[in-house]
Design goal:
Elements (H helix, E strand, L loop, with lengths): L11 H14 L4 E6 L4 H11 L7 H5 L1 H5 L10 E8 L7 H8 L6 E2 L8 H20 L4 E4 L7 H8 L3 E2 L5 E2 L7 E8 L18 H5 L5 E3 L2 E2 L5 H7 L6 H7 L2 E3 L3 H4 L26 H5 L3 H7 L9 H17 L6 H14 L5 H14 L1
Parallel strand pairs: 3-10
Antiparallel strand pairs: 1-2, 2-7, 4-7, 5-6, 8-9
């Protein structure tokens, strides 16, 4: 590795100012640096995996050794540049989000997924950032990450001081609450590191109390197998019957623990157009999304994180929400009739997984 021809680069004051300016210019809202040591976090991860709380996310267990040691991902890495990027569009209103959750005819998609796939947005900007650093200091070993490899992103960001762990296990900070994405650049340059920050959750348990499926089993403990985000996104199989009613009208992810968190009252909105909602996903009804053909699903979710779950899981999730609407007394009979017809008509061509959920939904009404 050759360092910069400018020896002032590694001066801490010059370094921080330059890095923060570059990060801000690329759309990042926070930047902190930490080392690659994970300490007790690796033991906690292994215990969580041993308890089977990761559900069908076998990749987490398969690459547990890499998660525990970032240096295996980038040989010689000694530092992690951690960045955050806010994702809430300016039009997002939490009161409106709660109102939609209470309207059984509406389809609720998690706020982070309504715009462009964050993997695409962050990765290209992280790569550009890394190249700028290399231009400044000379050749270095590095690799960029954004939820794209076995890396304990939240723990590294916590260590770096980008925030503290909330009791829902998400990262929180004073400026953005928990409504931000994380990205990392592992480098083999011994940059000055930042310190952890103090936690500010106090005695609040709102996120634990609000969870529809009680997936937050204790402070800082999440059982993914119960989490609606896991059930509607990561889970490839049938949604367990015991959780279907609790899903309500959530068809992709769940934001309840974020909506209730006091710190998200202060969450800054993003100015990036990438995260603006597309195809009316912040106002769509269940029947509207159910009407999409597979070709329409693929086209409208092009460049979206939602596309990765595929049409079958999408229909599975919608069928459950439609069943919950049918069993809800607040839904008018004329609307229930339209939902029943839409579900029944789909049985002819539905695959086995979707068929089982449609049949459950229709029985929920009877």
């Amino acid at each position: 590795m050759s360092l910069s021809t400018n020896p002032q680069f590694l001066d801490e004051s010059n370094l921080r100012g330059w890095l923060e300016a570059q990060a801000a210019a690329l759309g990042f809202d926070g930047l902190r640096i930490t080392d690659t040591h994970l300490g007790l976090a690796s033991e906690r991860l292994n215990q969580w995996l041993a308890e089977g709380r990761h559900g069908h996310m076998e990749y987490m267990q398969r690459h547990a050794d890499l998660r525990s040691n970032p240096e295996l991902l980038v040989p010689g890495a000694v530092r992690v540049i951690c960045v955050s990027m806010n994702y809430l569009p300016s039009e997002t209103n939490f009161d409106t989000e709660w109102q939609r959750l209470e309207d059984p005819s509406q389809a609720v998609v998690s706020m982070y997924a309504r715009g462009r796939d964050y993997h695409k947005v962050l990765r290209s900007r992280l790569q550009e950032f890394a190249e700028l650093i290399e231009e400044r200091i000379g050749k270095l070993g590095y690799r960029v990450f954004t939820d794209s490899a076995p890396l304990m992103e939240v723990e590294l960001a916590r260590k770096a001081g980008l925030g503290w762990r909330g009791k829902h296990t998400l990262l929180l900070n004073r400026e953005s609450g928990s409504t931000f994405f994380l990205g990392e650049i592992l480098v083999d340059v011994p940059l000055p590191i930042d310190q952890e920050i103090e936690e500010h959750c106090g005695t609040c348990t709102s996120c634990i109390d609000i969870c529809p499926t009680k997936a937050i089993t204790a402070p800082y403990q999440l059982d993914a197998r119960r989490c609606i985000s896991y059930l509607t996104i990561e889970n490839p199989e049938a949604i367990p019957v015991e959780f279907r009613s609790a899903m309500g009208n959530r068809v992709y992810g769940c934001d309840d623990c974020q909506l209730i968190c006091p710190w998200n009252k202060f969450a800054k909105r993003t100015e990036l157009p990438d995260f603006a909602q597309r195809h009316g996903l912040g106002q769509a009804s269940l029947l509207h999304l159910w009407s999409w053909t597979e070709a329409e699903f693929e086209k409208r979710h092009e460049g979206s994180a939602i596309r990765r779950i595929g049409y079958i899981r999408w229909r599975r999730n919608l069928a459950v929400a439609m069943g919950n609407a049918l069993s809800n007394s607040a839904v008018a009979e004329i609307d229930k009739s339209a939902i029943r017809s839409a579900l029944s008509d789909a049985l002819t061509d539905a695959d086995a997984l979707v068929t089982e959920h449609i049949q459950w939904a229709l029985k929920a009404y009877n």
